[in-house]
Design brief:
- The protein has 246 residues and is mostly beta strands.
- The protein contains one helix and 18 strands.
- The strands form four sheets. The protein has an eight-stranded antiparallel barrel with strand order 11-12-13-14-15-16-17-18.
- The longest helix has 6 residues.
- 44% of the residues are buried.
């Protein structure tokens, strides 16, 4: 079981901060007017309702590393239902919570489901007003060290999740991020393949450019595709590639 943090730095400061049953990409190489690849199941406008913008109720979206996936949580956004969806390595897991939401109070609950006929538990918390959403811990069969980055979506700030990889000489790994064009911010997780060490990453998102804390453009978003090539602090050329999945 792994203790993890919520979206940090610029995203935590900026944010007051549905189920995805499967991911389908329809790619076009013939029509230049079309994006090179698009996520058919992804929302193009916020799912979050304005009435929940300053509440612990609403929509939360994030990414998972260990292996790779996404998490979405719906706390009474337009209904009395409290549900979630965890997608890990392409497998969708429906989550439910039995903890009642109380207006004006923080929300702390276990979201449970089943993966390969075994129980899944996601321990989720969010402060009053929707601040600091955090997956405190998780128990996912076969994924003992899962790490999450999650943020509250508002009615004016769509949260988008991209799953991808990075590579450089002698090293490859996972590069998953979430971003908000409305807030001009992004955050995520990078992890070298075969390693248990994760690096939490974040920065600004301006004019479709994913820019890290040092001002380096680590990727450019075209349609639902992230691609980048840059030189890191050790003078190695790093290539990134990712696709929107939530």
């Amino acid at each position: 079981m792994k203790t993890i943090k919520s979206f940090k730095a610029v995203f935590i400061f900026s944010l007051l901060i549905f189920g995805v049953s499967s991911i389908f990409f329809s790619c076009s190489k013939d029509d230049a007017a079309e994006p090179p690849c698009s996520c058919a199941t992804c929302s193009r406008t916020p799912d979050a309702l304005a009435v929940n913008d300053a509440s612990a109720k609403g929509i939360y979206k994030g990414i998972v590393v260990g292996s790779s996936g996404t998490l979405s949580i719906n706390i009474q956004n337009g209904s009395n239902n409290i549900t979630g969806t965890l997608v890990i390595d392409g497998v969708s897991i429906a989550l439910t919570s039995s903890v009642t939401y109380v207006d004006g109070q923080p929300y702390l609950a276990l979201f449970t489901g089943t993966y390969n006929n075994l129980p899944v538990v996601i321990n989720f918390s969010v402060a009053v007003g929707g601040g600091t959403p955090t997956v405190i811990s998780s128990d996912i069969p076969g994924h003992p060290n899962a790490v999450f980055t999650i943020a509250k979506e508002t009615s004016t700030s769509l949260i988008e999740a991209f799953e991808g990889t990075y590579s450089k000489a002698g090293e490859t790994g996972i590069f998953n991020i979430i971003l908000s064009s409305g807030l001009g911010a992004w955050g995520g997780i990078a992890k070298e393949n075969g390693s248990s060490v994760v690096e939490e990453i974040n920065g600004t998102y301006v004019n479709n450019e994913v820019i890290d804390e040092n001002g380096t453009v680590v990727g450019v978003i075209t349609g639902d595709v992230l691609q980048g090539s840059f030189t890191d602090s050790s003078n190695s050329v790093v290539t990134t590639i990712g696709y929107r999945t939530l």
